[in-house]
Amino acid sequence: MKKLIDLLNKQVANFGVLYTKFHNFHWFVYGKHFVRYHEFFEKLYDEAAENLDAVAERVLMLGGKPLASLKEFLENTSIVEATKQFTVDEMLKETLSDFQKINSEIQETIQVGQELGDEVTVDLLIGIAKDLQKHIWFIESMLK
């Protein structure tokens, strides 16, 4: 169970960092399609917050302690925080790369959950993976 909790906490960290990263993109997007991308990144940070909460609560239900500070998030994330100004295309490429990393990690966590017979965690993660894969498809299409 410890391995599963550790893998889930990695996603807590990832969604915590994404929440802030998507706020950065939301605030600093510019250009002729400003409104479209401003709203797009708002949707993504709202979704990141929901995923952060759902995964952290699952860690608690499994008897673990979710990561709960920015310091812990940055020490445990697979995601690089946004620390510079990005163009819209760079924001989309960053988001695509982040979602691909998280999706891959979630697949590993699903496998561990299945091995442990933890259908509730698997179900939660399949739902998150479904949304991530749809976002990946959308962003790949946007970048063509």
Can you give a write-up of this model?
With 144 residues, the chain is mainly alpha-helical. The protein has a single domain, classed as Ferritin, core subunit, four-helix bundle (Ferritin, Up-down Bundle). 79% of the residues lie in helices and 0% in strands. The chain is built from five helices and no strands. The mean pLDDT is 97.
Give the secondary structure arrangement, pairings included.
Elements: H1 2-28, H2 34-61, H3 70-76, H4 88-115, H5 119-142
C-alpha-based Rg, rounded: 15 Å
Shape: globular
CATH superfamily: Ferritin, core subunit, four-helix bundle
CATH topology: Ferritin
Helices and strands, in order, run as: HHHHH
The CATH architecture category equals Up-down Bundle
Calculate the terminal CA-CA distance, rounded to whole Å. Answer: 42 Å
Q: Low-confidence stretches at least 5 residues in length (pLDDT < 50)?
A: none
Q: Please, how many helices?
A: 5
Percentage of residues in helical conformation = over 70%
